[in-house]
Amino acid sequence: MIKVKLIETAEELNEAHKIRKEVFVIEQNCPEDIEWEFEEESHHYVALIDHIAVGTARWRQTEKGYKLERFAVTKEYRNQQVGAALLIRIIADVPKDEKPVYLHAQLAAKNFYLRHGLLPKGEHFWEGGIEHVKMYVR
Questions:
Q1: What pTM value is reported for the model?
Q2: What range does the domain containing 116 cover?
């Protein structure tokens, strides 16, 4: 069973950072300096299976609304609904007001977000050497 929780301790945040480093910096070759931007103002989550951290994500408020970011799942737990559990929990926790809820989806993950009701808008663009599209929850 997947448990998604808001990160409350330095140890939990450290586990989330390990996952992000593994997925984004090592696997995807993203520049490490941009990986750690906006840490302090973000609300961080960790996904656990049998008390093992297997996924992470965060959200933060921007001038454009609420941005969902840094969805990462360790290789051995991909395609097991961990990303879906993170997305569902974070969407439930984002404030319910008129501000848009959006993310920058890697093109490889676009269909995942489409399956969960997000809608693409605008042209594709590059971030961290990876092609993305902006997608909206509402």
A1: 0.94
A2: 2-136
